[in-house]
Input
Amino acid sequence: MTITTRWLSASEQHCWRSFLNACQSLFGEIDAQLLRDSGLPHGYYEILVHLSEAPGRALRMTQLAEASTFSKSRLSHAVARLEERGLVVRQICQTDRRGQIARLTDEGFAVLAEAAPGHVGQVYRSLIGALTPEQLDQLAEISTAIIAASGSSRRPACADQDFADQPDGGSALKESSCTGPDTVPNLAKDHSDLDRN
Output
């Protein structure tokens, strides 16, 4: 069976390379800022964001893998690193002893709250502020089309489950509604938590 390669035209090649360079430049700047100011690689920051926006600041490891850009094995390594720093704890799921839950600690939330302003500022400088409102709308549409073409199975981090604290300090799952995570944590709604902790 003969397979004919559909080569890129000159304009398509230019578009692809421009997009690739833009992505590398953007995420290089985002990662460098987080590492410099907070000691967090962007992937670790992403994990903390997903946990901060989940009910009870906790997710099954499988849910966290589905919501993040990490493979399951890389996620396990990343969470272990965050656990060493006291930013995350892992617990056995009370309803499924084979499953694990990752929970954001108070210290982890405080680190995230401190890192967020610098990160948001870098996102604005590197992306949002560089584009017009019309271009931002176009970028959102283009991103949606790329995700659809990739067949990505990523879904909102909280899936369809919630976590309720139990008297014994464990966690049990209960049904809840689900809202998807934003790029950065909505720390404004959590200022009361920061005041208490």
Observations:
- The first strand starts at residue 58 and ends at 60.
- The radius of gyration is 19 Å.
- The chain is about 55% helix and 15% strand.
